[in-house]
Amino acid sequence: MCGIIGYWNKELEAFPILLESLKKLEYRGYDSFGFATSFENKLLTERQVGKVSSAKCPILPGKIGIGHTRWATHGKVTEKNTHPHRDCSGKIAVVHNGIIENFQELKNSLLNKNHNFLSETDTEVISHLIEEKLEQGMNLKDAVIEIGSLLKGRNSFVVLNSETKEIIAFRKGSPLIVGITKENGTSEVFIASDIQAFLDKTKKVMYLDDNQIVIIKENPEFYNVKTKDKIEKRLIKIALDTKDAEKGDYSHYMLKEIMEQKETLAKAINQNDKDLMHVSQEINNARGVFFVGCGTAARVCHTAEYIFSKIADKHVNFIPASEFENYKHFLLPETLVIAVSQSGETADVLEALEIAKQRGSKIISIINTQSSSIDKISDYTFLIKAGPEKAVASTKATTSQIVVLILLAYACAGKLKEGERFLIDVAGKVNDMLNPRYEEHIKKLAEIIYQRENIFIIGRGINYPMALESAIKIMEVSYIHAQGFAGGELKHGPIALIEKATPVIVLVANDDVRQEIISNAIEVKSRGAYVIGVSPENNPIFDYWIKTPDVNGEASSIINLVAVQLLAYYLGILRGHDVDYPRSLAKSVTVK
Ligand code: M6R
Fold this sequence. Notes:
By secondary structure, this protein is α/β, with parallel strands linked by helices. 34% of the residues lie in helices and 23% in strands.
C-alpha cells in the first residue's frame, strides 16, 4: 500500500529514473503521486492527483530524489495530501507508507510550536519532527532514528534533505529494499518498496529490516535503530526476470495472469518432497492448526478446512487475519499457524504472526514473494512460484496456493505421490481449458449479464469458499454487487433477493454434494433466476452452461475458480473499468 522510491547518483538526472521506477509501483496505490529532487541545494517538488502511468509531468532537475504513489488513508485524494510532504523550512521532504497511530498527539504538540501544516495527512508530522531535531543541531541520521522510534504503528519512510543532499530511509512494517548498480564507473543506488521498481537496472539488492535505517549513498550504510550500531549487509543477487512482470501481448495484467495458470499450477506442484513431509508431520503433531490470510488469501485458508478434512481426515481452523487476536488464547508452543499471502506483506497477517510468535507457536507460510516480511518471520516457507502478480485482483497466486494446500493434505495422509500425480492431471486440464474458444464462450456470458446490478454465486463443500472468492473477483473488477453463499444457506434469507433474471452462478463438482447444489439451483430457478452452471455436466436447469473439466474432489475449487476469474475479467472490461487497478484498492495492503 503506497509505493516508495528513492534514487541517488552523481552523474545522471534522477527524475526520468524516478518516474519510470514509480510507474512500476503503481499497483501499490494509485490515488495520486509526487516527486521531490534536490537541485542546487534547493527542494523541488511535483505532485498530481491520478495515476503516474498516465500523467504528464514537468521534469525536475537534480541527481537525487524521492517519489511516492499514494493509496489514501489520512486525508482525501487531493494534491495537498499527496506525498512528498515538506517541513516549514522547505528543505525536508518525506514519503511514507503506513499509519502513524499517534499522529494527532504529535501534530498537536507541533502546532503548539507554531509549525505550519499544509496537509491533512499523518505523514506530514514526520517532516516537521525532523525539522525540529535539525534545528536543535542533530544530524539527519540521528533525527531519523529518533523520530522513527517515536511513531506508533507500522511505518516506513524516506527523507530527503535537499540542503545536505542526504537520503535516509527508516523501516518498521512495510518493506524497503536497496538496489545497487556500479557500471562503467557510475554508481546508482535505489531504495524502493518493491524490487520491481529497479529490476531493469539492477538485480543486486540489500534488504532493510524492521527497526533499521539506511543512508542512501555510494556505499549505503545501515544502522540498527535500537542500538545505533552500524550493520554490515550482504549484497544479494536476485533471480527475478523483468519480463515476468510485463504485460507482453496481453491488454491487461489480469488476463495475462489468468492465462499463466496454464503453467503456474505445475510450478506450484514442484515442491521439495522432504519439506512437504517434514511440514506435514508438524501439522499432524500440532495442538491446533490455524490458517490465516486476508481477502482472497483468506478464502484460500477457508478451503483448507475442507481440503484437510476430506483428504487427511484432519481438523484445521481458518481465521481471517484481522480477527486473529480474538483467538490468541488458543495459541500454545505446540500450535501451528499457517499464513497464506501473495505479497508476503499484508499488515493484518503480519500482526497475526507477531502474536503467534509471542505465544511461541510455530509459523509456516505459503507465499509468492521470497524475502518478504512474512517469509522472514516464518519458521518454514513454501514459495508458490507463480511469478510476479501485478493485477490487483489475485488470480494465479490463488490457485497455486490451493495446490500447495492439497499437496500438504496428501502428505499429511501419507499419500504425497498420489497427490502429486492427481495435481499434475488437474494442471493439464486447466492448460486445456484456457483456450480461445473457452474464453469466447465466457465472454458471451459476460455480454448477457454485465448490466445486471446483482450477481449471486452458490456452492457447497469446497465450492462454498470458492463462491465467496468468486464474489470478491466479480465485485473488485466489475463493481457489480456480488455475493457468495453456501447453497444450503440461501433459503434462510438471501433467496428473498432473487428476482426475475437475477444471475445466479452455481459452482458444481462431481462430488458428494452435487445433487444438493443442483436442488439449490432449482430453488432459485423457480424464483426466476438466470441460472449459470459452472459444471462438468450440463443440466436442464442451467440457462447458461460453462463446461468444466471433471476433476475429483477438492481440485474442483481450482477449476471452477479459473472459469469465474475469466468471467469477472470480461464483466469489468464490458463495464469499461480499469480491471488491473480497480478503484479504491491496492495490491499490497500494508496498513491495518
Ligand atoms: O498479498 P496477500 O495475498 O496477503 O493479499 C491479501 C488480500 O489483500 C488480497 O487477496 C485481495 O483480497 C485481492 N485484491 C483479491 O483479489
